[in-house]
Design brief:
Layout (H helix, E strand, L loop, with lengths): L2 E10 L2 E11 L4 E5 L6 H9 L3 E9 L2 E2 L5 H7 L1 E4 L11 H7 L11 H7 L2 H4 L10 H13 L5 E5 L7 H18 L2 E5 L3 H7 L2 E6 L2 E6 L7 H7 L3
Parallel strand pairs: 3-8, 3-9, 6-7, 7-8
Antiparallel strand pairs: 1-2, 1-4, 4-5, 9-10
Helix pairs in contact: 3-6, 4-6, 7-8
The structure holds adenosine-5'-diphosphate and magnesium ion (MG).
């Protein structure tokens, strides 16, 4: 198993948000985490990277219990996180954003070419301020910045948010390519039905901090199901 959460409870201070979540992700799999706004999807991602404290249960990454490890150590082990809202430094250049890195992986020489291979636009815009790019380009930068560290798993938190549909589809194609070609494992939090269906092998539905269902992506073809589980 690439990633395994076992009876995880977590939250902010004493406030519990994630309640008894168990979840496994296999190598190379693309798992979508879906659910309405405020149900705990981002908190779940932050629990996996260690930014939100686990109250009980365990997070296991490639057979290693990482529950007690700080965020930086989990990143070094190969857990990459592209935050909701992207976390780009808009006044710095694209190159500076890539060079700053994210502490993912252990490569001494960050693999910039890897980011350029999947997102050629970043090479073209290397010297421009990141804030001068479109939302979609900034999302590509946010993902590219994680790829330079060569993670084993990439957690993507609502990459389609505020992005034009054509770029959403492009990001979807790239995520699939990364999975098929490089064996990258992906957990993607999404509300965008077409992106979910373009990339996901399986959908895990979160409500009120707990896993309430697992769906095949095509089950979201049913409008009632989609309406129940997505904010549409
Ligand atoms: N930093 C924080 N401190 C306290 N509560 C938070 C914090 N961030 C989020 N929450 C609360 O946790 C719950 C889940 O939020 P979140 O994980 O962001 O949901 P989602 O990503 O599914 O929209 C919400 O009730 C939210 O108000
Ligand atoms: Mg969120």
């Amino acid at each position: 198993m690439m990633l395994e959460l076992s009876s995880v409870c977590s939250g902010y201070g004493r406030v519990r948000i994630i309640n008894d979540v168990s979840l496994t992700v296999s190598p190379g799999e693309i798992v979508a985490v879906i659910g309405r706004n405020g149900v705990g999807k981002t908190t779940l991602m932050k629990t996996i990277i260690g930014e939100v404290q686990t109250h009980s249960g365990t997070v296991t990454f490639r057979k290693q219990d990482v529950t007690a490890l700080p965020t930086s150590a989990r990143a070094k082990l190969g857990i990459g996180y592209v935050p909701q809202g992207r976390g780009i430094f808009s006044r710095l250049t694209v190159g500076a954003n890539l060079a700053l890195g994210t502490g993912v992986g252990t490569a001494s020489q960050p693999n910039l070419e890897r980011a350029f291979e999947f997102f050629p636009i970043l090479k073209k815009r290397l010297r421009q301020p990141a804030g001068s790019m479109s939302g979609g380009e900034q999302q590509q930068l946010a993902i590219g910045r994680i790829l330079v560290g060569e993670p084993d798993i990439m957690l993507l938190d609502e990459p389609s948010e505020g992005i034009q549909p054509s770029i959403v589809q492009e990001i979807g194609r790239t995520v699939r390519l990364l999975s098929r070609q490089q064996g990258l494992t992906v957990v993607i939090v999404e509300q965008n039905l077409s992106l979910i269906q373009a990339v996901a092998d399986r959908c895990v539905v979160i409500d009120n901090g707990a896993v309430i269902a697992t769906l095949a992506p095509d089950e979201l073809d049913d409008p009632e199901t989609a309406k129940t589980y997505l904010a549409i």
